[in-house]
């Protein structure tokens, strides 16, 4: 079995976008991917509206804790996906970088967070397919 592709999702607070990206990549990519996430200025906890929106897709990120990305995380990544951390995003020559300009879900109502979540899911699915990962299905859970 080949080594899993390591993907780092980086944003500012590691409380919203990068947590959603990591959640989708881990669930959709299974053992074919190793997922990391971090922020340039980690928040105290994952955004509760993000937790609710991800639960609607059958993914629980409530137990995740925002953390800072560090050089070791970036160095171990095959792909670094940045999501709005600007100049604070990590950069190491020789890594593949993708910048996904997504709205920050912080302080947004569930309707806005759902749109961000759905765009992240679309982007993660496309990335996994591009790197040759068989994408797993997610159950459809009705919004409450």
Structure description:
- With 144 residues, the chain is an alpha/beta fold.
- It has a single domain, classed as Response regulator (Rossmann fold, 3-Layer(aba) Sandwich), CATH 3.40.50.
- The chain is built from four helices and four strands; from the N terminus they run βαβααββα.
- Strands 2-1-3-4 form a four-stranded parallel β-sheet.
- The longest helix is centred in the C-terminal third of the chain and has 21 residues.
- It is globular, with a radius of gyration of 14 Å.
- The mean pLDDT is 91.
Short synopsis of the structure:
This protein is an alpha/beta fold and 144 residues long.
Order of helices and strands: EHEHHEEH
Give the class-level CATH name: Alpha Beta
CATH fold label: Rossmann fold
What's the story with the biggest beta sheet? 4 strands, parallel
DSSP helix fraction: 25-40%
CATH superfamily: Response regulator
Number of structural domains = 1
What structural category characterises the helix and strand content? Answer: alpha/beta
Calculate the terminal CA-CA distance, rounded to whole Å: 40 Å
Adjacency order of strands in the biggest sheet:
2-1-3-4
- CATH architecture, by name, is 3-Layer(aba) Sandwich
Low-confidence stretches: none
What spatial form do the alpha-carbon principal axes imply? globular
């Amino acid at each position: 079995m080949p080594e899993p592709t390591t993907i780092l999702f980086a944003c500012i607070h590691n409380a919203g976008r990068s947590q959603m990206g990591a959640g989708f990549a881990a669930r959709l990519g299974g053992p074919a991917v190793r997922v990391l996430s971090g922020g340039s200025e980690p928040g105290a906890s994952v955004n509760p509206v993000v937790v609710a929106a991800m639960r609607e897709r059958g993914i629980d990120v409530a137990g995740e804790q925002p953390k800072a990305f560090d050089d070791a995380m970036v160095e171990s990544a095959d792909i670094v996906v940045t999501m709005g951390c600007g100049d604070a995003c990590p950069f190491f020559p020789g890594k593949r970088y993708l910048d996904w300009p997504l709205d920050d879900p912080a302080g947004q109502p569930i309707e806005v967070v759902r749109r961000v979540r759905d765009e992240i899911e679309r982007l993660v699915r496309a990335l996994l397919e591009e790197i040759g990962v068989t994408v797993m299905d997610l159950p459809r859970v009705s919004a409450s």
